Amino acid sequence: MAGATPVLDDHFRDQCGLFGIYGHPEAARLTYLGLYALQHRGQESAGIVASDGQKLRLEKAMGLVNDVFTDARLEGLVGDKAMGHVRYSTAGDTVTANAQPILIDCHRGQIALGHNGNLVNAAMLRHELEAAGSIFQSTSDTEVILHLYARSHRERLEDAIAASLSKVMGAFSLLFLTNDALVAARDPWGFRPLVIGKLEGATIVASETCALDLIDAEYVRDVEPGELVVIDRKGIRSFRPFPPEPVRQCIFEHVYFARPDSRVHGDVVQYVRHKLGVQLAKEHPIDADFVTPIPDSGLYAAQGYAEESKIKYKMAYVRNHYVGRTFIQPSQDQRSSSVEIKLAVLRDMVKNKRVIVVDDSVIRGTTSRSRIRLLKDAGAKEVHLRVSCPPTKHGCYYGIDFPNSKDLIASNHTIEEIRKHIGVDTLGYLSVEGMLSAVTSPKEHYCTACWTGKYPVPPVDEMDKGKHERNC
Ligand code: SF4
Fold this sequence. Notes:
Blueprint: E1 4-6, E2 16-22, H1 27-37, E3 45-51, E4 56-62, H2 65-68, H3 71-75, E5 81-87, E6 102-106, E7 109-116, H4 122-131, H5 142-151, H6 157-165, E8 173-177, E9 182-186, E10 195-199, E11 202-206, H7 209-214, E12 218-222, E13 228-232, E14 235-239, E15 249-250, H8 252-257, E16 263-264, E17 267-268, H9 269-283, E18 290-293, H10 299-309, E19 317-319, E20 326-328, H11 338-342, E21 343-345, H12 347-350, E22 354-359, H13 366-377, E23 382-387, H14 415-422, E24 426-429, H15 432-436, E25 446-447, H16 449-452
Parallel strand pairs: 15-25, 18-22, 22-23, 23-24
Antiparallel strand pairs: 1-20, 2-5, 2-11, 3-4, 3-5, 6-7, 7-8, 8-9, 9-13, 10-11, 10-12, 13-14, 16-17, 19-21
Helix pairs in contact: 4-5, 5-6, 9-10
The protein binds iron/sulfur cluster.
Residues 191, 250-252, 396, 398, 400, 447-450 line the site of iron/sulfur cluster (SF4).
């Protein structure tokens, strides 16, 4: 019987995207555009909350930004302050209650919160809060922060937010919106990015600079790790309420997650990816007829590899940009794999050729194998896979949806076993040192836990997706 088959993409799921603006008459519409630019960070739900100084109004639903927001919905989001969120839910509870921003009304007044990252002690805190009488409206770890905030007796907004955040551990880039203020906060390790921009006297905070570029806003600076920024009628005020921790920015943002045109952790992503490719060519050279990327995330690394190795760069894969989340199989024959639905190969280009394929990562290995098979079926004489990061062996506790470690092919197979499984003639991964050579901050300022197993913040909770929804 024919049935709907998911279009598999053997990649880590992106986390969440945040966009906030203070002091612009078209705040909600600009937020809508900003979320468009950040859509790659979350495709399951989208939401915008706006304030006219009297009341917060919220619209959120499951779906892409374009599906969720009609003109009428945006029309109702009045005010010169707004904050929006796109989310990828990790498992199970893909319900609207978990969509963000989360809006509550407590004795301190209305407040909305959007979160990028993942807390490592949210389940423990939730248990304590529930025992003390708190009633949660979602299974998202983010809501814990709002309950802590509502219980705070501190008078000033920034003090109450800082007090609630001092209890949580893990990764958070956050935007709070009240009737009068937009507040940004970033955890002391700085796992997830957060930047400040300016547009016509308005202040913007966003996950990535690509959201600033789309609305012609100017990049001002990053929200620093451990910084809390209050934007209100007094201007922009910066606080450092958390004890300092060693900075550990997520380098996977550069390898795969962030958009190539964004500046993340101080570096432009496309240039970092290009350098990853250059370094990959130095570490794993091989002769071939041409280098080709897996579109789109392998693109810049493949260019770097081709330039360094002085081998021609060609686009052998063609990507279908109009694929939905599932497709209907025509029969039980399973005629087409999800990879074939998404990617095609230029047969005349690859026939009898020696091809170097550059991809950003290998996760379970299944998708890589299918992609390589497309080349082999098209008659490629040799296929050499080059991966622009080290073998991914460990899960992430800081806001990226990884498969369980046991499902990561590199966690329990040697490189040679992976090579055979994928079906390539040679396989080369970038080294951890090589990866770190492509970024400009000191090497110890990056988290590399999914390759090295060295976790900057050990998890307190049992990170079981079935028990507790990890945020994003
Ligand atoms: S474990 Fe990997 S994906 Fe997670 S924050 Fe660290 S580097 Fe990024």
